[in-house]
Input
Amino acid sequence: MPDTKILLEERDIPTHWYNVVADMPNKPAPPLGPDGQPVGPDKLLAIFPMSLLEQEMSGERWIPIPEPVREAYRMWRPSPLFRAHRLERMLGTPAKIYYKHEGVSPAGSHKPNTAIPQAYYNKEAGIKRIATETGAGQWGSSMALAGKMFGLDVRVYMVKVSYDQKPFRRSMMHTWGAEVYASPTDMTQAGRNVLAQDPNSPGSLGVAISEAVEEAASRPDTNYALGSVLNHVCLHQTIIGQEAKKQFEKVGDYPDMVFAACGGGSNFAGAAFPFFADKAAGEKRAQNIRLVAVEPTSCPTLTKGVFTYDYGDASGYTPLMLMYTLGHDFMPPGIHAGGLRYHGDSTLVSHLLHDGLIEAIAVPQLATFEAGVQFAQAEGIIAAPESCHAIRACIDEALRCKATGEPKTLFFNLSGHGHFDMASYDKYFAGELEDYVYPEEAIHAALEHLPKFG
Amino acid sequence: MPDTKILLEERDIPTHWYNVVADMPNKPAPPLGPDGQPVGPDKLLAIFPMSLLEQEMSGERWIPIPEPVREAYRMWRPSPLFRAHRLERMLGTPAKIYYKHEGVSPAGSHKPNTAIPQAYYNKEAGIKRIATETGAGQWGSSMALAGKMFGLDVRVYMVKVSYDQKPFRRSMMHTWGAEVYASPTDMTQAGRNVLAQDPNSPGSLGVAISEAVEEAASRPDTNYALGSVLNHVCLHQTIIGQEAKKQFEKVGDYPDMVFAACGGGSNFAGAAFPFFADKAAGEKRAQNIRLVAVEPTSCPTLTKGVFTYDYGDASGYTPLMLMYTLGHDFMPPGIHAGGLRYHGDSTLVSHLLHDGLIEAIAVPQLATFEAGVQFAQAEGIIAAPESCHAIRACIDEALRCKATGEPKTLFFNLSGHGHFDMASYDKYFAGELEDYVYPEEAIHAALEHLPKFG
Output
């Protein structure tokens, strides 16, 4: 039997990130200020280092990965590419299924791929501290890890309801030496404003972002870091797909379809963009490749949203970005794939979808857990609920292959393990989870609040 | 910089387990029945398959690993050997530190190394079901995984207090399709007896073992499986040290000292015995190797116990084994390395210690968490509290090397990750953990209850 795990050596860690902007037929529109004018890097220097802003705006195809970042990646990279022999047998499919296991990182997901370089570039810029926010804790724990590796202090504003209900990611952050506060706090004006209205506020990601940005903007030694959506975040994640390509080369195969869960977009970008590069470069084998972003039916940004300028956050503090959005005050239900509860999407991913160069589908929650359990019983690995979206889409395609007899090569990104999500699996087993399909009227209502300008 | 991870290919998974019995100058004494007579395999056939009993009694040096077991091992094996560059720098030691990461298995520890072959041999013997017990859940989840891989139903009697307080390992077992019951149950006579005395009994490992053994003994389609202590369990774990030797060979190094946490003994056996094989074979580089079992000061079996025949369980149901023991009714305090709370130790490990061929040390609880946090901040990985015992011992030696300038090569086994132990880290951070050093009088009292016979 061919190998289960396709491994690379540390010297195979890519030397450059791939910037999809270079290959986009329509270049991404710039972020706009409230006045409708493009926001230049100068306005963002208060919270980001110039090196990251240059990456954010860059049109260069290949961006070198600094050696200290490659060295830190070696803690867990290259991540293994698995051939899902057992899952294929369980499904009885003629399709070949591969998955990249990003859950092998110390924080358990793909997030450190960008936390590490963000910490590095901030350290290089003389910054001493990072302020950031986290919901359930995936991003906060990744930033805590990265800060420790580069000697930066990290303060995490963790949404209060998660701080109280999901203590173990908080414990991880403490283990890596980060400060963690339940947001809203009384340490920022943004937090105090919320507490004045409701001293028992459970918090929200929007409020936590506001607190972190306020702190970063007001302290010269402190910057802000974001875990998805932005161009430079998508850029850093392309290490996933680049490694996967080398691994496919090693076994003489190449995917017909790529599946990745899509919340803010960087996980999908990381897995899919390097294959888009092959297509753009005219490689024959890549001409018919299908790149599929998988989102929840409860937060159907790419499949039901509109392509327009909107705020990145719920409160309207951020610049406006051209993207698929459900409206910045769209409030998705409390599904168990917290990383996919985002009203908008990466500008890069949105542009590619709008230009018909990638695809998007939405899958319901119960079916994703069903797929996750099937995957665990076949492959052993317990996946994060976000990753179960990609697994669901891939299994569905493998079953279509079974029906048609097509021996397609399918690839999905297993973005993280589910060790901190077992309570969600428990609810699934107890029959306590529901499928949410967002009513069209609710989406229409949220879209009426889109910003008007210009 | 040399590689951080020393990897092997799947074809490098060993083809044989190493049986240390072949190289022991004094062969292990047989288990005895209550009459003081050796217990033959016939008496154990009600709960174990003959193939495993043959391994339990074997004196052969090399025992072939069946191909289906090697194939299942490929889900995660060979596990990586890490060179702890970052930890070395943090400590400022001239020592080289390596660790084998057994936490990469789907269940998160070394336990599946034996759960997988135990499931295989039982399946081959026509058995349909496995009954077993678990405390905090490491073993139960490993057996659940292994049962699913070979199509066996698994029922786990989980100590009630853990069932209630540690729900997430229970969720893992459910995900892999196992039945999990809070022990004591009303499904066995052993359980009913306990419940009759105390309907609110929190349960104990001893009671859970009794329930699982009773079920296995009374149902022809059901066998029992044990996760440590026994010779065949130690045998299966030797895949760890064998892989490590190949990995050291790959980088042209060899350990001066091997450290592994020791509860029932199989983790230590797995890491250390293959190096003992080199010494026994007269290999020059192995003549001065030191093999160090690390136990908690709160349960100092090897360092404070006596070498004598005692029961394997608290209730006195099992055969008597010649081993280091604190007395079968010794009740260690509720430390956070649950896997190390065992009154006795593997017969093999005990014999080797008694013959002066290995060493044992005890380390206090707080110092192990301190080492675990230092390790996480250097290497990224959050270790299980059990593994932190080996880390502590290894760091102490590295610091001695710093003082003396000796560039020793140190190797420890990272037996598992700590993702399901974050509550223990929390207690450590909150200053709620204590050091327990068991009073000599308490040990003497327990030793007065040693069985008398013959």
About this structure: Chain B is about 40% helix and 15% strand.
